[in-house]
Structure formats: structure tokens, C-alpha cells
Specification:
The complex is a heterodimer. Chain A contains 3 helices and 2 strands. Chain A is mainly α. Chain A has a domain at about 5-45. A two-stranded antiparallel ribbon of chain A has the order 1-2. In chain A, helix 1 (about 5-15) crosses helix 2 (about 20-40). The longest helix of chain A is centred in the first third of the chain and has 18 residues, at about 20-40. Chain A is flat, with a radius of gyration of 23 Å. Chain A starts with 5 loop residues before the first helix and ends in a 10-residue tail after the last strand. Chain B has helices at about 5-15, 20-40, 45-60, 105-110, 155-160, 180-185, 220-230, 245-250, 275-290, 305-320, 340-350, 355-365, 375-395, 420-425, 430-435, 465-485; strands at about 40-45, 75, 115-120, 165-170, 185-190, 210-215, 260-265, 290-295, 400-405, 440-445, 455-460. Chain B is globular, with a radius of gyration of 21 Å. An 11-stranded mixed β-sheet of chain B has the order 1-3-2-4-6-5-10-11-9-7-8, sandwiched between helices. The mean pLDDT of chain B is about 95. Helices cover about 40% and strands about 10% of the residues of chain B. Classes of the chains: A mainly alpha, B alpha/beta. The interface between A and B is large, with 54 and 72 residues.
């Protein structure tokens, strides 16, 4: 289990939306043998009955009164946009032809 | 003037012996003189810094009551959003991005009249321990330009240790403030998780990230800590409690009767000889000052590194999904026939560096169905055991100590192709992050074999940050009288003024 094939890495890269060259796939796959071997040590301990911690402090939902407060203007919000049209972000086609 | 402490600079400003403009200009001159060699800064905001300094000078002249660090210059890690100033997190995917807002840390710095000189280099998205993973090239250690300053806040640490700024802000997810502080011979503190707002801090691993101060003295670091800490409604994980009295603690520096626990698992094998020697010497000094030194056992710490390198990549794979080429940052491959997905794939391929891709893929794997329980789930349980180990240790000791890093600064390029070797450098700092407690690194001297700085790490329970400063100040004063001069007087001047 502690290794990833070139095809495994390709599948993960597709899930993570990162295009990878053949060289990157092969190199990552060879590095993962070692990295997964090291991190798989977490399975060595008997963890029966141990509760998982997702966060270092007790957290709870925090709400505020539903009142209008200052926020970014449309101009500020769009200031870093790679492409825009009027007061909107312009994005590439999201749905395929058949959809 | 630039070799003074921040506290001394602030004192000189209050007495009218100098102006913030003169102080700021002196640091800008030092940046011009040495930063072509050190490469601590990604962006120097000359005009903005001088304008800010001028406005502080006007307030001082008008007799306004200002904060203790008003008019003192600072270097800011490029992970914190500053309105209108390029903010990249060391990544090509954010090249040219200018945030439309200030992070809470920046807002607090500005309100305190602290002059922001510019943005400092870092490992891309804080993923790394040497600053070599910056997409803009590495930062060089002022003690030896062929070596790394550590990371990920290597730019901030190098700026302070080469007198380009008296104080700086870093962030610490697995040791990224404490380890570069150790490798460059300065003081760095990772405050308790939630003590400093994460609003506007570009997220790497949200349950571990925490911004914190760098300084050349324990007191300077405490003064900056008090400026940036405090509850913030804009960060849902911000601790709603009074800021610990860290400045008062740094001024008292008394360890008489204090119990100091040496963590059995964070010493011995794997630690460079000179690191061990300086660590043992500091313990002796603390004992001589009246502290009781005991040993504590934290058996689950052996698994901390493995747990960290599952939890942090898992959280990063989720956090970095926001870099989708749609709203800000780089966009590649747009045009006729392009889809949102093809643009995302191309943009993230071009915009992210090697280590970031490695961690995103590792996190995607650790969170994938079928492997979640074995990897991420187990790591979260190890995290619980680490918290329990600390809790038990803190019933026996007021603070815990260890060397900050197993080695002194290593050569640029030495570990860059061996991720596991690089990760091992974080072995002593990571447990603090997993438990959400606080930690300090302060200089303990130079290793005999290479004359490079060694860091002494102090750890305290959550929201007991003042204990770090109390212990650190006592050790610092004793070491200073032993050395006869600050450690940094032994570092090369690099052609700058000192």
C-alpha cells in the first residue's frame, strides 16, 4: 500500500486539477514510496479508543447579528480578476456542449 | 542606529533623538547595501515606508500618545495581505496580485505606527524549511551566504539578522518562525494557536497556521507580540481572552523555583554535537539561576512528524483549491475551446512549484476514500496523543525545552531533492503546532564545529505565552553576560553598516 504507481499519481493529479508532465508523474511516484513509508508510521501505534483531533482548540459556530457592514466594493473585488466583463468575473466555459 | 534594539529605537524616537524618517531611511540604506546578497525581500516599499514614517513623526511632534513601537520599521512575511502591496506567498500563481484589503496583523501594525519596509521571501505558501521552495529564488543566511536561513519565514529571519529590520513578522505552521530564528541567531515566537488573527494570512494548514514575531532580543519580540495579538471577530478560531502579559514577563526574566522539563524524545541521537553542547550549557545556566531541571517523557512525539506530514498536506490540498484562475492570480490556457477545468489544470501546473504540488497530491491521497481512516484519521488520533503527552508533562513542569532544530544551517541545495531529509529538520518544532500551544526559539550560542547559531526552544501551555518570555529573558541575560556582546556581533557585516 505504501507506494503509488505513475497511474495513481496521474489520477490524483487530475482530481487536484494539476496538469503534470510524464517526468513529473514518474518522479512523484518514485518519491511517494519513501514519503508514504515514513508517514505510514502513524499506523504503528495502537489507536483503539483514541478520539481524533481536527483542531487544537474547542471550536463552535460563531454568528453575528445580521446587519449590513462595510465590505469590498465591486471594483475592489474585481481588482485582481484575470478577466472581467462589466462588473463581473469572466470565466472560461463551465459546462460542456451536451450539458 | 540600525544595530540598536527596537526598544532602544522607540526610546530614541520618544525622546526626539531621532526621527522615524531617519530610522526608516537608515534601514532602507542597509537593504540597498546588503540585500543583493541576502535576498530577504521580495518587495521593498520605499515610498510607502517613508510616508508612514513621516506621518508617525508628525504625530510624535504633535505630542500624541503612541504605541511603544511607533515609528520603528519592520519586515513583513509575504504571506500576509497588505492593501495595494504585491502579496505572493512566494508563489508564481499570485505574481502581481495586490490585495484590496489589509490582513488584521497589518491593520494592527499600521494602527501601532509601525513602519512596514516591505515583504519578505518565503517557501511557496510556507511549505518548506529552507526558503529554497520560493518561486522567486532562495534567501541566503547572513552568517554564511552559502547556507539557507531556514524557513519557511527565512526572508524575515534573514532581514532581522542582517540588520535590515529590527523586527519582523513570520508565520509558523510546523516551525517556520522558530527554526529560521534558530538558524540565523535571533528570537522567534510562535504564539498560542488563535492568539494572533489569521484574517488575511494566506492559508496553508488552517488548524496549524499562526503568525508571530521575530526580534533580536526577547523584549523586542514581546513588544511586537503585544501589538499583533488579540481577539478578532473576523477569525472564527481567534481566542477570545486577554493577551498574556508578555512584555512584563520579558522585563522580569526570573526563573527561580521554576520547573523546566527536558523532553526525552527531543534530544540525543540525530542532533548535531554542537547543538547538544549549547543546549546542555543553557540548561546548566537555567539551573544556576534557580530553576529545577527535570526530564519528561512524551512517547507519542516519535510519531509527530508522520502525523504532521499527513495533516498539513491534507489541509493544504483543500485550502489551495481556491487558486482556480477565476477570481484573482494567474490564468493560463484561456481562449477558444478552453474549459474552466482545462484552464485550472494549466494554471495550477504553471503556477505551483514542486513542493506545493507534492503536498497537494499527498493530501489528496491521504483524504481519498479508502485511505482516509488509515492516513488522515490515524494522524488526527496521534494528534490527540500528543496533546495528552503535553498536558501530562505540563503537570510536572512550567515550561518544556529542547533544541529548536537538530542541526545548524545547512548548505543551499543540500536537501532540496530529498524531501524526507528536509522534513526531519522540523522534528522538534512540529509537536507545538499539532497541540496548538506556544513556543519560542532564542539563540544559545554557536556550534563549536561550524560557528553557526544554535537555537534553544521553550514551550508553554496554550495562552501561557508569558512563560516563554519569562524563561527566555532570564536565559538571554545570562548568555549575554557570558558572551560579553550580542551573538550577532559575531556575524559578518556583508558590506552594510553596523
Amino acid at each position: 500500500m505504501s507506494s503509488l504507481s505513475r497511474d495513481d499519481v496521474a489520477k490524483l493529479a487530475a482530481l487536484a486539477r494539476i496538469e503534470m508532465t510524464e517526468e513529473e508523474l514518474v518522479s512523484l511516484s518514485s518519491q511517494f514510496g519513501m514519503i508514504l513509508g515514513a508517514v505510514a508510521r502513524v499506523q504503528e501505534m495502537d489507536l483503539t479508543g483514541v478520539v481524533a483531533t481536527s483542531h487544537p482548540q474547542p471550536i463552535e459556530n460563531i454568528t453575528r447579528p445580521d446587519v449590513i457592514v462595510a465590505s469590498l466594493t465591486p471594483e475592489q473585488a474585481l481588482s485582481g480578476a484575470p478577466a472581467r466583463e462589466d462588473a463581473r468575473f469572466r470565466v472560461p466555459q463551465i459546462l460542456g456542449e451536451a450539458e | 542606529m540600525i544595530n540598536k534594539t527596537a526598544a532602544e529605537m522607540a526610546g530614541a524616537l520618544a525622546k526626539g533623538e531621532t526621527t522615524s524618517v531617519a530610522l526608516t531611511q537608515a534601514h532602507l540604506d542597509q537593504i540597498s547595501a546588503v540585500d543583493s546578497k541576502v535576498k530577504a525581500f521580495l518587495h521593498v516599499d520605499t515610498a510607502g515606508a517613508l510616508a508612514q514614517a513621516k506621518s508617525v513623526d508628525a504625530k510624535i511632534a504633535a505630542g500624541e500618545k503612541l504605541s511603544p513601537l511607533a515609528g520603528v520599521p519592520l519586515a513583513l512575511k509575504d504571506i500576509l495581505a497588505q492593501e495595494g502591496i504585491p502579496t505572493t506567498a512566494g508563489s508564481k500563481i499570485l505574481e502581481g496580485w495586490k490585495p484590496p484589503y489589509d490582513s488584521t496583523v497589518v491593520a494592527k501594525l499600521k494602527a501601532a505606527g509601525i513602519v512596514i519596509l516591505g515583504k519578505t521571501n518565503m517557501d511557496e505558501f510556507a511549505m518548506g524549511s529552507s526558503t529554497e521552495n520560493s518561486s522567486y529564488g532562495p534567501t541566503f543566511n547572513p552568517w554564511d551566504l552559502s547556507r539557507t536561513p531556514g524557513g519557511s519565514s527565512g526572508g524575515s529571519a534573514a532581514a532581522v539578522s542582517s540588520f535590515q529590520a529590527p523586527i519582523a513578522i513570520g508565520s509558523d505552521t510546523g516551525g517556520s518562525i522558530r527554526q529560521p530564528a534558530a538558524l540565523t541567531g535571533i528570537v522567534g515566537v510562535r504564539p498560542t494557536y488563535g492568539a494572533v488573527s489569521r484574517y488575511g494570512l494566506i492559508a496553508y494548514s488552517s488548524s496549524l497556521d499562526q503568525a508571530g514575531p521575530f526580534g533580536r532580543t526577547v523584549l523586542d519580540t514581546a513588544l511586537l507580540h503585544e501589538v499583533i495579538a488579540g481577539h478578532d471577530a473576523k477569525d472564527a478560531t481567534s481566542v477570545n481572552a486577554p493577551v498574556p502579559a508578555v512584555v512584563a514577563a520579558a522585563k522580569s526574566g526570573d526563573v527561580k523555583g521554576m520547573k523546566i522539563g527536558v523532553i526525552k524524545q527531543l534530544q540525543g541521537e540525530g542532533y548535531q554535537k554542537g547543538v547538544q553542547t549549547r543546549f546542555a550549557e543553557s540548561l546548566q545556566i537555567l539551573a544556576g539561576l534557580g530553576a529545577e531541571i527535570i526530564e519528561v517523557d512524551c512517547p507519542s512525539f516519535e510519531y509527530a512528524l508522520a502525523a504532521y506530514y499527513l495533516i498539513a498536506p491534507s489541509e493544504c490540498s483543500s485550502n489551495l483549491a481556491r487558486f482556480d484562475a477565476m477570481r484573482y492570480g494567474l490564468r493560463m490556457g484561456d481562449g477558444p475551446g478552453a474549459s474552466a477545468e482545462s484552464v485550472m489544470n494549466a494554471t495550477r501546473a504553471a503556477g505551483f512549484g514542486k513542493e506545493v504540488k507534492r503536498r497537494i497530491i499527498l493530501g489528496t491521497y491521504a483524504l481519498s476514500s479508502g485511505y482516509y481512516d488509515a492516513y488522515y484519521g490515524s494522524a488526527q488520533k496521534i494528534r490527540t496523543l500528543i496533546i495528552q503527552d503535553y498536558a501530562k508533562a505540563f503537570t510536572k513542569a512550567d515550561v518544556l525545552v529542547s533544541p529548536t532544530a537538530p542541526t545548524t544551517a545547512y548548505k543551499i541545495g543540500e536537501k532540496v531533492d530529498d524531501p524526507m531529509a528536509m522534513y526531519l529538520g522540523d522534528v522538534a518544532t512540529i509537536p507545538v503546532n499539532l497541540a496548538g500551544i506556544c513556543g519560542m526559539s532564542l539563540p544559545a550560542g554557536l556550534a563549536d564545529e561550524d560557528n553557526l547559531p544554535v537555537g534553544f526552544q521553550i514551550m508553554a501551555p496554550a495562552m501561557q505565552d508569558q512563560r516563554l518570555y519569562q524563561t527566555g529573558a532570564a536565559l538571554e541575560a545570562a548568555l549575554l553576560s557570558k558572551w560579553g556582546a550580542p551573538l550577532l556581533t559575531k556575524a559578518p557585516a556583508l558590506g552594510g553598516v553596523r
